[in-house]
Design brief:
Number of strands: 7
Radius of gyration: 19 Å
Mean pLDDT: 77
Structural class: alpha+beta
Low-confidence stretches: 14-24, 157-175
Number of helices: 5
Helix content: 25-40%
Strand content: 15-25%
């Protein structure tokens, strides 16, 4: 009986945590705005034109409001980023994020913009700052080079099979899922 109460307490605590944390990590309406493109904007002018055409401001969403985020800081806006696999560029409307010295990527599975920890853009040219807004990713064109090189190699080398998984779990809800699984495992003995 005490074991069931502990499980129930853990589950309810995790559900409350999930409600508070996981919505910030992703916005599922973003997935409805995804569009794969050959190239992302090269400068501020082309970024403004693409953003105007995408018209993210017209999309009704409550991602930032539902979780009490500052609407001035976290804006549902146009992004053009590499995808999680590093094999495509994608235009999407998503909440902007602070990116910490890495290339920004869009994770379609989680519906979120995040740091790509495999691509340290402070070591690229031009280097990105230690902190930048994800909607300004166009300033760091070297982050897109990975995709463009992969595309060029695929065109010249021909098909050799596909690698469509980055091997990373998307989103930051993995600890929650693991905790739930551990909470409901059967005790030994």
């Amino acid at each position: 009986m005490i074991y069931c109460r502990i499980h129930l307490f853990v589950l309810l605590t995790l559900m409350m945590f999930y409600k508070q944390v996981c919505p910030f990590t992703g916005c599922q309406i973003s997935t409805l705005t995804e569009k794969y493109v050959d190239q992302c904007p090269l400068d501020a002018e082309s970024w403004k034109m693409a953003a105007k055409q995408k018209n993210c401001e017209s999309i009704e969403q409550e991602c930032s409001q539902l979780i009490g985020l500052n609407n001035q800081q976290y804006i549902f806006q146009y992004h053009c980023l590499i995808n999680s696999w590093g094999n495509a560029t994608i235009e999407v409307c998503a909440l902007n994020r602070s990116i910490f010295g890495y290339c920004a990527e869009y994770d379609a599975a989680g519906g979120l913009v995040q740091d790509n920890y495999d691509l340290d853009c402070q070591q690229r040219h031009p280097p990105c700052p230690a902190l930048y807004n994800s909607a300004e990713a166009y300033l760091y064109q070297s982050c897109y080079d990975l995709v463009y090189r992969k595309r060029a190699n695929k065109t010249t080398a021909g098909p050799k099979g596909s690698s469509s998984s980055s091997g990373r779990f998307s989103g930051s809800c993995l600890p929650i899922l693991l905790s739930i699984a551990l909470a409901f495992r059967k005790p030994y003995g």
